[in-house]
Amino acid sequence: MTSAQLQFSLLGPLDVRVAGRPLAIGGTKPRMLLATLLLHANRVVTTDLLIEVLWPQQPPRSAAANLRTYVSSLRTGPGQVGARIRAQRSGYAIDVEPGELDMLAFEDLVLRARQDRADGRPHEALDQMQQALALWRGSPLEDLPGSRVWDGRLETLAETRLTVAEELLALRVRLGQHSTAITELRGLLVEHPFQEGLWRQLMLALHRSGRQAEALDAYTEVRRRLVSELGIEPSVELRRIHAAILAGESPDVQDWETTTAPPRVGPPQQLPADTPDFTGRAEDVRALVAVLSVADRPLTDPPAIAVVVGPPGVGKSTLAVHTAHALRGDFPDGQLYLDLAGTSENPQDPADLLAEVLRTLGVSGAALPDSVHERAALFRSLLAERRMLVLLDDAASLAQVRPLLPASCCAVLITSRRRITELPGAHQVELDVLPAEDALRLLGRIATPERVNQEPESAMAILRSCGHLPLAIRIAGARLAGRRGWSLRVLEERLSDESQRLTELRVGDLEVRASFDLSVRLLPEAPARAFRLLGLLGPQSVPAWVVDTLLGREGSAAALDTLVDANLVRLVGTDPIGQPRYRLHDLVRCYAQEAADADPEAERQAALARLLGAWLATAEAVGARLPANIFSLIPTRATRHPLPPATLARLVAAPVAWFDAECDTLLAAVRLAAETGMDELAWGLAVALVPYFDLGSHYDAWTRSHLIALEAVRAAGNLRGEAALLRGLAQVHLYRDAYDESERCFARSYALFQEVGDARGEAIAICGLGAVQKFRDRHAAALVHFQQALAMFLAAGDLAGQAYAWQAIGRGHLDAGNLTEARKSLTEALRLSQLVGDQHREGYVLTQLGRLHRITGDPERAMSCLRHALAVFDGFGDSHCAAYALHTLGGLHAALGDREGGAIELERSLAIFRRLGDRHGEASAAQALGELHRDEGRIALAEGHLHHALALWHGLRATDRAAATLAHLARLGGDTADTVTDRVRPSTSV
C-alpha cells in the first residue's frame, strides 16, 4: 500500500485515517452511506440504491431529503473525505486513488500474485498473496448492520479471500514450506471444515513432510465429517490422494493447481446466430453497448452488468444476442452463452450451469469442484485475468444469476421476464413493444415490403391486432410469407376477432399463447387469479385498488407487484392525482380472458359486481364534490362497495382531476356492466358521470355512456333506469340545440317516471320540458312547466329543486320584461341556493340578476353580480356557464362605453359557444358583436357577425330572433327587411 495521507479500510470494521490517525465518522447511517460508496469506489451509486441501504424496509417520504443531509454531513465533516464525494444527476460517487482503499489494494495484489504464479515466479506470488491477506482485519464492515445491496460484493470478497488463502497454501506446499502450511491449514479448517480443497492440501503437506499416518488420519476425519454431517462421500480427488498415500505413492500437487490456475484453452465463441432481419431498438442497442464496453477499463474493475427485461414475446433475447454480436470485438477472450431456462418448469440449477461453463473453460474430470460455492469461486478465478462477455438468457431470479457473475472486468448481459432490480450497479433496460414505424418495417422484411406497401391499411390493422409485439408480428409475417395467395386483408379479418386471435397467431413452433403460458404457469394463486380477472376489464388502464376489489380483500399489492415483476401487467405511468396506472398488453389481455373462461361463472360475476359497485360508490362520492346537480338520479337497487376511507379521501380531494383520470375507465365500466347483464349498475354509472360531463361539456362521452346503458335497461325492462337515461340524453340534445329530439326524450322520460311513481323524476323531466320551451322563445309555455315543477318541489320539500325552479321562473319573467316578478323570483332563488350551499346555482342566479340590474339602470350592482358569477364558474372550471356570464358582462361593458373591453368578452364567449356547439349561445354572442360594431361604425364587421347570427337563428327556427337580426341588417344598408331576406336567404338555409 502507498503512504497516502487518506486511507479507507473495509476489510474489517469501517476505518478512515488521515496521516495514520483515525477519523471519527459519526452515526450509523452516514457510515453505511460511506461504506456503500466505497464498495462502489469511483463509480456512481444511484440514489435509489443508497435509499435501499439506509432504509431497507420502508423508506420514509423524506428519504431523498434525508439522504442529502447525510451526504452533506460527510462532505462538510472533518478530514478530506468530503472532497472525494461527487454529486451526480443520478446519485453520488467517491473518488479513491490507488492504494487508498484496502479492498482495491487487496484485489490488485491478488491479480499481480496470480500473474507472477502464471509466469513461473512462485516466491514473488507467495509474497504478494501474503501482503493481500494481511490487509484483512476481520469480516468486511463487521461493525455495521448488513444490507442486501452489499451481499454480492461482500460474498465475492470473502470467496476471493478464501481462494487466495488456498492458493497461498498450495504454493507453500509446492515450495516445501510444509510445516508453516500445515499450521495455517489447520487454522483455516476450523473456520471451513467442509472445504475439500483445504483438506487436500493438508493431506499433501503431511505426506510431503513424512507424516503419512497423520495424512491418512486427516482423510478419515474429513470423511467422517462429510458422511455424518452432510451425508456425502469425499470427492474423487480426495479419494485418489488417499489411495496414493496408502499405496506409498507420491500424489502430484500439480493436479490440484489446475483447479485454480487458468487453463490454457482457446477463447469460447458461444453466441447464438444474430437475427438477420433484426429491426429497430437502435437506442437500446446504443445504451447497452455503452454500458457493456469495458475495453478501456482496468481488469480490477467490477463487471459491467446490464439486465434486459420485458413481457413475453417482446424480443429480449433477440436484442441481447444482437447487442452481444455488436460487442464481440471488445471481448477477445471469448463470449459465453448460457440458457437459464427461467420460464420452464425446471429452471437450470446454478451448479449445472457452472459445470457447463467450467468445462468450456477447460476444467473437467477430477479438477471440477463439487459444490456450487467452489465452482463459482473457480469460475471467478478463471475470468479474473480475462475480458469476456457472459450472456445469461432467460433468468428466473437473482439467486439463479448470482453464482454466474464474474468478479473482474468482464461484461454480463442478462435477459429475464422478471425484473431483477436488486442486482447492485446493473443497468436496466425495460423493453416495450415496437413503435409503429419499426413494427411496419419488421412486417415488411418478413412478408416482403411490396405486399405491405400494396395494402397499407390492412398492414396497420394487422399490427394493431398484434399489439406491435415482435413475436406476434414475426408470426403474422411468417403466415403471410407462407401463403402467397393471401391478401393482407385476409389475415386482417382473421385477426379481428379477439376470441380467436391467439389461435391465429401460431406458425410452426412459434406461438404467442405458448409464450404467455410459460410466464403465467409460474404465478402463485392470488396473482394468477388477479391476472385472469384483470383480463375481463378491457384495454383501459386501472389504478392499483382495483386488484383489492377484484380479489375481495385488502392488501393485494403483493399480487399486483408479482404481475408487474413478471411483466404480465405494465405500469404505464401516474395519473394527475398521483395514482400509478396499470394495464395489460392487448394480446396478454386476450390470453387472460381465455384463462378466465375456465373459472366458475358465479365467481367471475361476483368479482365484477364488486368492482362495478366500487366504481359506482366512488363516482357518486367524487361527483358530490362537483357543483351540485339537482337532477341527479340514484339507482336504489344497485349494490355499492365503498373503498376504504383512507383511499376514498385521497380520491375525492381532487374531483375533476379524478374524473379526468378515470373517464375512459368509467365508460368501459358502463359497457362492462351492460354486457354482463348488470343493468342497474350500468345506468347508475352512466348518471354518476353526468355532473362531470355537464361541468366539462363532454357531450360525446355523455351520449355514448347513456346509449350503452339505455340498451341494457330496455333489455331488462328497467323503466326507472330508462327514464333517467332519457332525461340525460334529452339534456345533451338541448345543449346541442336539437329541440325536437330533446322534447321527445323529456316527454318519454316524464311518462316513464309517472308510470313507476317517481314524483321527483317527474318534476325533473318537467323542468327539462320547460327549458326546451324557453330556448324556443315560448316563454309563457316555459313558465307553466317551471311553475308546475316548483309546486312538486315544494310538496316534496326539495330545496335544491325549488332553487332551480325559482331561477328558471325568474329568467322567464326577465325575458318577458316582467321585472318586478323577475326580481322576486331571482331573489328567492338566490336565498335558496345559498341555503343549500349550491354555489354553482348561485352563480347562475347572479348572472340573471346582473341582467336585471343592467335593465333597471344599476350598472354597478350588475357588474358586481356578473363578476361574482364569472368567478364562481371559473372556479368550477365550467366554461359553458362562464360563456353566458361573459356574454352578459360584455354587453354591459359596451353599454357603459367600454366597447373594446365589451368586444373582448363577447369574442371570448363566442369562441366558447362555437367550441361547445351551442348554436343558441353562439347566435346571441354573434348578434351582440354585430350590434356593438354597428354602433362603432365598423359596418363590414357588423354585417359579418349579423349574417352569422341570422344563419344560426334560421337553423334554430328562432323566427322572432331572426326577424330582429334582419331588421339590424336592414338598418345597416338602408334596405327593407324583405330585401335583406332575399339577399341572405341562400346563405342561411341551414
UniProtKB/TrEMBL annotation:
Keyword list, A-Z: DNA-binding, Transcription, Transcription regulation
Region spans: Disordered: 254-277
Domain AAA+ ATPase: 302-453
One Gene Ontology term from the biological process aspect of the record: regulation of DNA-templated transcription
Keyword Oxidoreductase annotated: no
Residue stretches making up the OmpR/PhoB-type domain: 20-94
Any Pfam family hit: TPR_12
GO molecular function, one term: DNA binding
Domain Bacterial transcriptional activator, first and last residues per copy: 101-246
Similarity comment text for this entry: Belongs to the AfsR/DnrI/RedD regulatory family.
Protein name: DNA-binding transcriptional activator of the SARP family
